[in-house]
Amino acid sequence: MRKVVVTGLGLVTPLGLGVRRTWSRLLDGHCGIVSIKDRSPQFAALPSQIAGLVPEGKREDGNWSVKDWMSASDERRMARFAQYAMVASEEALNDAGWAPKTEEELEATGVYMGSGIGSLDDVYETTIAYEKGGYRKVSPLFVPRLLINLAAGHISMRYGFKGPNHAATTACTTGAHSIGDAARLIQFGDADVMVAGGAESCIHPLAISGFARARSLATDWNDNPTEASRPFDKDRAGFVIGEGAGVVVLEELEHAKRRGAKIYAQLAGYGLSSDAHHMTAPREDGQGPRNAMKHALRHAGFRPDSVDYVNAHATSTPLGDAAENRAIKELLLGEHGKSKASDINISSTKGAIGHLLGASGSVEAIFTVLALHNNTLPPTLNLYTPGDPPEDFDCNYVAHTAQQRDVRVALSNSFGFGGTNASLCFAKM
């Protein structure tokens, strides 16, 4: 099987635009979660009035202004999630130094870009327009802006990539599935290079209403937004919705070597599983996440005791964090595992950026790659008292402050509604 490596990274997050800005702010303990109650009366009436927003402003300050990144025509044709995907892809391709020109190179380069929800704004606004004015009030761009695979389509069209053009939509596991599936396309020879990741932008009263009615969101910190997302903390009470995009350039190892590409890490393993349990709630025993991690390590050929870091899915929900914590401990302390829980290094970066839904898996995969590349564990914000019960939460959760560690093997976990689970295993070359 051909080996797959990561040669480019691109980020759009609530901590800012670009890998360097996002990573440095993450390590410094910044939080991108803000109040949204002043955006409109509809937001102010919601039980959860906070979100991880991509900051708007000048490009030179690391902020988002669509006119700095694309033409008016492109802005009309692309929904916000696709715009984020395009900008993150541009950074990742520039970082990788991959700008194919020959027909052979273009045919060997593909795109795999997913989203969990896509453009809810377009659905809502077009529905209202149709109700008021009928057929003629529906934009001819409505369907193209709506379709989740158009993010991959726009990227392919902009750069002329003629390899696989694909999209996943698997709720909050989307970004991880996109990267893992893209790696397999390279392993099986369908492409030499893949631009892969996830993007999301659905900070809309309707989306927040839906998650709030499902009792998934944090509602107790509307006046203290930066304290709301608290993975593994005993006072955790729901996730904070966020937006952004994470994109990687994946490349076949020998292809990367021949062109002298910078290699961040190898994508050594990819594991998938299903809870087969409930539409939204995880299994309390963590069997699904445990199986995903186990399969990722099996594909990579690593024993559990070789894992130096786990970037957890941990969204700050009582059931989800507990189930994942149990799964990690059972796997990494089991057969061929570590001797004690304190040797397990886990953090959840959702304390800093919230839960980016379909983009979370790819953004957090990039954080995992950077942890490997820089031997630095990103912190879990707002973790004051692990639990509950505290005796079950006895790993090293990298509370508040980044830690220096020798990281050679790392897992990045993502789980989604419908019981879908994925784990990516990255390793140093």
From TrEMBL:
GO terms for molecular function: 3-oxoacyl-[acyl-carrier-protein] synthase activity. Transmembrane segments: none annotated. It comes from Paraphaeosphaeria sporulosa. One of its GO terms (cellular component) is mitochondrion. Belongs to the thiolase-like superfamily. Beta-ketoacyl-ACP synthases family. This is 3-oxoacyl-[acyl-carrier-protein] synthase. It comes from the Eukaryota. Pfam families: ketoacyl-synt, Ketoacyl-synt_C. InterPro entries: 3-oxoacyl-ACP_synth-2, Beta-ketoacyl_synthase, Ketoacyl_synth_AS, Ketoacyl_synth_C, Ketoacyl_synth_N, PKS_Beta-ketoAc_synthase_dom, Thiolase-like. The active site is at 172 (for beta-ketoacyl synthase activity). Pathway: Lipid metabolism; fatty acid biosynthesis. SUPFAM superfamilies: Thiolase-like (SSF53901). Keywords: Acyltransferase, Fatty acid biosynthesis, Fatty acid metabolism, Lipid biosynthesis, Lipid metabolism, Transferase. One of its GO terms (biological process) is fatty acid biosynthetic process.
